[in-house]
Amino acid sequence: MTIRVYLSGEIHTDWRDQIVAGAEGLDVIFDSPVTDHAASDDCGAVIMGEEPSKFWHDHKGAKLNAIRTRRGIGLADVVVVRFGEKYRQWNAAFDAGYAAALGKSLVVMHGAEHQHALKEVDAAALAVVETPEQVVGILRYVLTGALPG
């Protein structure tokens, strides 16, 4: 059984790479948003034309990125959303809500410091974890029935 996993959320750490490496040998197809911050921010203006207003510059980029995000979440069997420590990821919260609204299997990852702030997001998830290794354990169990260790 192949499963598609969409990895959403913060782009400042290597958590995606850790999950992909840990899931080696499992029948998983991974997808994610563009994680090059500059490319993600500037894609709309670069492709569709510069904007004098930062609002419209960001608006074009957000809409263009939404095409990729909607497709990725829509095709996914499992959506993993990581909330990082350094920044408030409003886009991650939006992606988690979108995945929940579509009835996707949602896994939320964050540290204990965000437990209270994300309680509603956590309530919509089928699993709440703190580490990439726990996500890999979930994928391995779903695909093989095997427990870690």
Notes on the protein architecture:
The protein is α/β, with parallel strands linked by helices. It has a domain at 3-34 and 76-144: Rossmann fold (3-Layer(aba) Sandwich), CATH 3.40.50. It is built from 6 helices and 5 strands, in the order βαβααβαβαβα. Strands 2-1-3-4-5 form a 5-stranded parallel β-sheet, with helices on both faces. Helix 1 (15-22) links the parallel strand 1 (3-9) and strand 2 (28-31). Helix 1 (15-22) runs parallel beside helix 6 (132-144) and helix 2 packs across helix 3 (54-75). The longest helix has 22 residues, at 54-75. The model has no long low-confidence stretch (mean pLDDT 95).
Chain oligomer state: single chain
Assigned CATH class of the domain at 3-34 and 76-144: Alpha Beta
Q: Can you tell me the CATH topology of the domain at 3-34 and 76-144? A: Rossmann fold
Structural class: alpha/beta
The coarse silhouette is: globular
Cα(first) to Cα(last) distance is 22 Å
SSE order in H/E notation? EHEHHEHEHEH
Output mean pLDDT. 95
- Count of DSSP H/I helices: 6
Indicate the topology.
Blueprint (H helix, E strand, L loop, with lengths): L2 E7 L5 H8 L5 E4 L5 H12 L5 H22 L2 E5 L7 H12 L3 E5 L9 H6 L2 E3 L2 H13 L5
Parallel strand pairs: 1-2, 1-3, 3-4, 4-5
